[in-house]
Specification:
The chain is about 5% helix and about 60% strand. By secondary structure, it is an all-beta fold. The chain has a single domain, classed as Beta Barrel (YmcC-like fold), CATH 2.40.360.20. The chain has a twelve-stranded antiparallel sheet, with no helix packed on it. Strand 5 and strand 6 form a beta hairpin. The protein starts with 11 loop residues before the first strand and ends with a helix. About 25% of the residues are buried.
């Protein structure tokens, strides 16, 4: 059984600390996995992203796991992307023009506010083939997306997992 680097569990909230050269201060970002459903040969999760800085912005999107890819339709640092190929394997490479990504490790150790994680998957993305910078992101087995360091020519940012909890009841009901 291979590790699940992006478990899709209903009613799960991921809280992140987000810093970027695009704004002053530290934003809080919540990714809520609201529902998870099996459709044909794929799993589709309905997710909600809440971005809080001086005010709050909420967007809804989907996360899909099919036999070949785990894909997000939106994201904090960039829009949607192919997160990684399935099955997960070291040295897997893929292109999403103009960027090129590779799983460079399945054994990284990451220590952040949310805890210490071992056997993490590390993905390096060369932005515009490296001409526009690079992004390094980590996924912990059984937890998911825990850290991303993005150094592009247009912005520099970091997204770090702070906590994982259940989606608060009142938040689930109020759909903006």
């Amino acid at each position: 059984m291979t590790a699940d680097y992006f478990p899709l569990k209903e009613n799960t909230r991921f809280e992140y600390k987000f810093t970027s050269t695009e704004f002053e201060g530290v934003a809080r970002v919540f990714i809520d996995i609201l529902t998870v459903a099996k459709k044909a040969n794929k799993i589709v999760a309905q997710a909600r992203m809440i971005f809080e800085l001086r005010d709050s912005h909420t967007t809804q999107y989907t996360i899909t796991r099919d036999p070949k890819w785990l894909t997000t339709a939106d994201g904090v640092i960039i829009g949607g992307r192919r997160e990684f190929p399935i099955p997960v394997r070291e040295d897997a490479k893929w292109n999403e023009y103009p960027d090129a990504s590779e799983i460079v490790s399945l054994s990284d150790k990451v220590s952040i506010k949310a805890g210490k994680f071992v056997r993490c998957m590390k993905i390096v993305t060369m932005l515009a083939g490296g001409d526009a910078g690079k992004s390094v992101r980590y996924y912990a087995p059984g937890v998911g997306y825990i850290l991303e360091e993005y150094n592009g020519e247009d912005k520099t940012c970091e997204l770090e997992l702070v906590a994982v909890a259940k989606v608060p009841e009142e938040k689930k009901k109020s759909r903006k």
